[in-house]
Amino acid sequence: MPEIEDSTSEEDAGASTRPRRKGIYVLPNAVTLAALFAGFYAIVMAMNGRFEIAAIGIFCAAVLDSLDGRIARMTNSQSAFGEQMDSLCDMVNFGAAPALIVYEWALKGLGKMGWIPAFVYIAGAALRLARFNTNIGIVDKRFFQGLPSPAAAALVMGLIWVVESSTSLRVHLGSPALAWTAFVVTLYGGLTMVTNAPFYSFKVVGAKQTVPFVVIVAIALGIALISQDPPLALFALFCLYGLSGYAVYAWRKFQGKPASVIAISTDEPDEKGLHQ
Hints:
The protein is mainly alpha-helical and 276 residues long. It is built from 10 helices and 2 strands, in the order αααααβαααβαα.
């Protein structure tokens, strides 16, 4: 008898060789979109002269940005789409938005000189994010290479929040002294993002790791102190963090240790743990 070709099996085989359509996970990407909305909302508020609310919006975006990745890992819903979307939203929230807001708030009064720190900041954020995306896997996870863009945004927006929330400081709005202070802080944030100074990432402290009881007490005290004056406390906190990378860099140099957080070889003893 002549053999009957099994066309169904051929069709199934052809279907199995086609790449499967990759879905999009809802929860982590919804959090990322919420962070993007917070950044957009901050820009709109700044356009309407409500700079204190704009600063709060950027801080909310930073909180949401810190959650989306953790939610993706906890729910096992990481994806390349989510990573790219998170990076693009970071560029808006912590690159374009702070630069535009601080320019509108204080730098506009300096004329074209005000363009310099704003553009350096937004360019630094773009370079920082591009370098971060290309260096994943070769950087010591304990440290960031350069100031993270959310921390740089918190530094710039923290200044705005402190001034706008203080009656005694609001009298200096529009003054050259405040404009040049914003100039220095914005320029510092932009340049520090593209340095090689190591900034502690806090990634080694996970939800499944135990800590001494005194750490929980210290966290409770920290929350209590921040609640007394959130704008000033957060600005001071991020100022200290913004300087910490250079302190770590100088300390490593003083001890004769490699100051770079980039791993070149997995065989070098000094680079132990960088590829983990």
